[in-house]
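Please produce the structure of this protein holding adenosine monophosphate.
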Amino acid sequence: MKPAVVAEIEPLRAVVAEARRKGQTIGLVPTMGALHDGHRSLIEAARGRNDFVVVSIFVNPTQFGPNEDLQRYPRPLATDLELCRQAGVDLVFHPRPEVVYPPDYRSYVEVTGLQDVLCGASRPGHFRGVATVVLKLFHLVQPDRAYFGQKDAQQVRIVQQMVKDLNVPVEVCVCPTVRETDGLALSSRNAYLDAGERRLATVVYRTLIEARRSIEGGERSAAAIRERMRERIGAAPGAVVDYAAVVDAETLCEATEIEPGRPLLLALAVKFGGTRLIDNLLIP
Ligand code: AMP
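Below is the modeled complex.
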């Protein structure tokens, strides 16, 4: 069945309230659209544990910097709705920016510290926009569970921290990164890559795998791993490292010594031409 599509707040609240009245549990999957199999895996996870699944499709302007790709970000609504239909979504929330941010809008959420490192360092204000829109979606939909991809590891940590700090009654569910067969993490931004960049882009995941292997092989110096990741990416012509990080998976602070039993995050942001790709591996 086709999902209902609503663009305004009142009908969104009404449809969700009706589901609640029937005693249904509600799962929310926040997205910016241009849906792919990574998003589909989140929807399927939500479908598996909730009676009523809401997908939001909103290219959130507050998480884009002034020189970023807000205008050119892909918005293939018809194919997105078809994917939602196939995946059994009940309701799609697709608001215009003015609905989410009316002209007199003033309130923002900041998750200090966590928002300033990694992607936050090269994209100032990005996670303030993310945390703000996610909290708004939580208030609008009031889901029992919300689904996020490990692909955006920093986003996950920030949402988890916000939910804990602000006592938001939502269970944050994290789903594994879905990849192409050659390892490239699916991303709506992969569509920006030309054929040559697309071939090169596999270096990102390969570098993460090699870093994990060297930790498994006994490497204990985080600096050495960082250096090796930088070299590996640097050797790919046209790939420019934004960051190559080995951080504590919880605090996102740079690790020095790798201690067994302490979860680590290996994270990369790499530019191929004008396209910035991110990926990560969690070392439990
Ligand atoms: P986006 O539309 O890029 O804002 O992503 C919406 C949600 O889908 C976020 O929670 C992402 O982490 C998640 N997501 C994006 N790409 C992937 C992927 N390749 N595998 C799993 N989840 C993903």
